[in-house]
Amino acid sequence: xxxxxxxxxxxxxAALVLGSAAAAPPEDPWTPxxxxxxxxxxxxxxxxxxxxxxxxxxxxLYENAHxxxxxxxxxxxxxxxxxxxxxxxxxxxxxxxxxxYCGCCPWSHCPNVRPAFEAxxxxxxxxxxxxxxxxxxxxxxxxxxxxxxxxx
Length: 152
Known about the structure:
Shape: globular
Number of domains: 1
Radius of gyration: 20 Å
CATH architecture: 3-Layer(aba) Sandwich
CATH class: Alpha Beta
Strand content: 5-15%
Oligomer: single chain
CATH superfamily: Rhodanese-like domain
Helix content: 40-55%
CATH topology: Oxidized Rhodanese, domain 1
Distance between the termini: 69 Å
């Protein structure tokens, strides 16, 4: 192989490696034990140790239907909403049982859950969990007959 061909092969190989690394999705900030299903959360709502529930969905989604008693500070991808969430969280014990959910779109594409989870995780919360909604809030919560509230 000529020196030029070897150099070209090395450049192509490096581009493929760098390209696949750039396309790789970010690592989840939560562990598998911090992920719960809608069914698990619905069961906890009727139990004695109800978690603090935080919706990080878009405002329109929250107003149309949300989990009863859930707090709302804005969409998780909005820096101002994250500031409001963090301000609220300063007065909450780090051992509080907090569950975050969105449901704006399929779980794998949600722009809101990850930033909110990371913000609270960085603040040191030790009992932080997230609800995995494979499809969206309508299909994974409302259509299942789990309780909802409407409005703000």
